[in-house]
Structure formats: C-alpha cells, structure tokens
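General statements about sequence and structure are easier to judge against a single worked case. In the encoding step, the backbone of a single protein was reduced to a row of integers, each denoting a local shape. The record that follows shows the chain in one-letter code together with its fold in token form.
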Amino acid sequence: MNCPICQHEAQTSSPNGLDGWHVNCPRCGNYKISRTAAVNLQAPLAVSDRLVANASGWISEHQNELISTVTAERLLKLSTPSYEERKRKFLEYLNKHSESLGKKFEISKPVFQSLVSASWCLDDREINFLISSAESDALVKHDGNGVSLTAKGYDYLSQLNKNSESQIGFCAMWFDGSVSHLWDKAIEPAIVSSGYQPLRIDKKEHVNRIDDEIFADIRRSRFVIADFTHGDNGVRGGVYFEAGFAQGLGLPVIWTCREDMLAEDKLHFDIRQYNFIVWSENNLDEFCWGLQRRIEAILGRGTWKPNS
C-alpha cells in the first residue's frame, strides 16, 4: 500500500481498534490515519504538491500521531514555512542526525526522502537548493555523497536557539477571571501539545519578590507568549514590559490578543506591526491550533511531556 499522504510505497498495518492504518513511510515516517481522514485527504493532496509537502513535513515532526478527520482538515490549512524556517529545519535535521561534530551525513535515497520531509520541501530540487544555498553561506560542506555542518553552521544554529536546552514556554497575560478560559482551553494546551512546559507566574508557588521571579523565569524560558487582551481599565503594562524584556534577551516572542483589540486600535501603536495571532470566544480551538503551529514553526517541536 502507498502512503496516503505522499504516495510513496510504505509499510502499513491495521491494528485492532483502529479503523484505518498504521503507516511506516520512508518520507513521512510513522503515523496512524483513519480511513475517513485518508479519503478526505486523497483528492486535495492529489492536485497539490505543496499541500503534500506541508502535510508530510508536519507529520515528520509529529511522529506516531493519529491523523483524524479534524487533523486532516487542519493539515490542508497549513501555511508553508518561509525559506529561513526551512533552512533552519534542514540544518537542525543534519545536526540531530550527525553522530559527531563535523561528521558527514551520508545521503542515501531513503534518507534523502526523510530529509525532504523534515525540511518541508516539495521535492529533490528544493532540498538541493537548500544544500547549495547553505554551502554558499559556508554553513555546510557538500561533496556529492554527503553533507556536514561547518563551524559556522553550528554557530548559526546556536544564534537561532537562545536557551536551546530550555523546555519552558512562559506566558505573559491579563490574569482576570474573564480570560481564564483562554489559558485553560487554548494557551496552555497549545504549549503542551508543542512539547513545552507551560509557565504562568500566578500559577507558580514562590516566596520571592514577584518582579524578580518574573525576570528569572523569563531568563530561563525558551520563548514567551504575550497576550495583550485587556479590559476597560486600559492596557496591561506588565505584559508590554515582559514582552520587551524577552525581546531584549533575544528570546522569541509570540504576540496574541482578542480580535477586537486590533480591530478597534486598542493596542499601543509601537506593537501593532507585529504578526499577531488573534482569538475570539468562538474560535478558541482554531486559536489553540494556530498557536501550536506558530510555536513549532519558530522553535521546532519540544520534548517535554506532562509529569516528565
């Protein structure tokens, strides 16, 4: 049977209790998919190589996931990562799968397919473009049989990955009860589903000064989510400060707010140019999914699990 996503020849089985297949594909990797989801994906994927590349790339980062009908719908809405994001994914894949510093990554045909997927590339041409581009920038060495990261390549990844060992996603937001469901139903689940540990200062037990605790927690975080939603009494100055502090440290900041805040110009002029993810009361599920996608697009998937 061919892989329902990329149509490469794949190993499949039908485990008990699953109305579908467990797929082991040389390009997409391991995943499970329901029969209905496979049918729903068949026609759209057949006419768009880009949808295939995006779906395969997402699955490569979410190994052993079950592709349900809801997940299938979301796969068809995935945005294509930028060139810089795909270059980062390519270099991080080399780093992860090279046995030692400077070790040449042998590119056999099966390995090449997994590299295409991990980099969210369309085909061999795109991955060869990334290799050539990275070689021109002196980030890799390529001899036709394999690729190895250079010292400059390792430095490039290091600059991108501030606090790269941290698994903490810090959230700065209004703590009013009117938005508590935003944390419970969207922000916290998105951070956890992305493989990171959610942290909100009011949820943490401590005996220190609150500002010192905030500084310390942001310093040890991998990224910061800043939600600028506020009530009638004005903007949340603490959220602005915490976002700015994180930016000053070089940490990624993900900007969110309730959609009416942007529509009615209720945010400070200096931050309106950022790429906000907006939410409303009737789209929290989609907001959660979009937030998870943004985290993973910027940082890659984390490894933290609840109770780990």
The chain has a mean pLDDT of 88.
